[in-house]
Amino acid sequence: MSWINRRVRGFRLIDLVAVGLLASLILGVYLAKTIAGGERAKIAAVERQIAAERARIRLLKAEVTHLEQPARIERLSETYLGLAPVPIRREATPDSLPELATKPIAGPSAPVAVTPDPMAIAPHEPPAPLAATTVIAEVAR
Questions:
Q1: How far apart are the two ends of the chain, measured CA to CA in Å?
Q2: Which of 17, 18, 13 is nearest to 3 (CA)?
Q3: With contact defined as beta carbons under 8 Å apart, do 74 and 80 qualify?
Q4: Element spanning 11, H or E
Q5: In whole angstroms, what separates CA 134 from the centre of its chain?
Q6: pLDDT tens digits for 29-67?
Q7: pLDDT tens digit sequence for 60-88
């Protein structure tokens, strides 16, 4: 009697081995499908995140385009900085550059106020500790 025809509790040994292999294959396929489903969910989440980032990039590019409009920048420079286009009489031609290089530069009409250095005016000794304890938060009971 060979091991193929040998019987265990009324079943041939080859049938038991085949059922065991079939069960392990079913379990393996089920686990692979479950793992693949999890990976698919992760991939979908990353794709959603990429789509959201692309939409944000488009929004930021549109905002930059709006902020860089020449008319807007000109209006802001005139309103807040007092800048204006250079009058034609102040423009220099390439032929007049050597003449302009020899002229002395005029200083500002009004003196420029210097901002004091915060480190120079800061006190040298540390502040005194607080006299009383400070209650930050009370716990209601």
A1: 84
A2: 13
A3: no
A4: strand 11-12
A5: 39
A6: 999 999 999 999 999 999 999 999 999 999 999 999 999
A7: 999 999 999 999 998 888 888 888 887 88
